[in-house]
């Protein structure tokens, strides 16, 4: 009986830890260094006019580039900055960012009007490369520390509760 109760709390704590640290499972992560150039692919066909959005934390998504294919060439309609450009890559309209800055970090995704429906393409989370090994990223360690903290707290309550009986 006690082990079932502890297992239930453990699974619940792990689930709650996942809620505390949300992530975008469908987005790929691309690491960059400041000042470099990065190209983000879109998995929607270039036959559709494409709009690129950037979403940074709790801010409203921002249109960074509108593009279309005219006479075989990628053409910009609107652009947030002259550092943003469009090109053809894997049969889609890809977004390129030159001289990456801190304000460029965030989630980028493409949107197109496909058969009278807005379709959102695969997202790319743009993050700065860490100077250390790739496995030593702060958000991962933060999740582990918070998870173990919650687990320790729950176990302390369980042990205290069991000893009080």
From TrEMBL:
The chain crosses the membrane at residues 139-159. Keywords: Membrane, Signal, Transmembrane, Transmembrane helix. Pfam families: V-set (PF07686). It comes from the Eukaryota. This is Ig-like domain-containing protein. Residues 1-26 form the signal peptide. SMART domains: IG (SM00409). Residues 25-121 form the Ig-like domain. InterPro entries: Ig-like_dom, Ig-like_dom_sf, Ig-like_fold, Ig_sub, Ig_V-set. It comes from Zoarces viviparus. The keyword Zinc-finger does not apply.
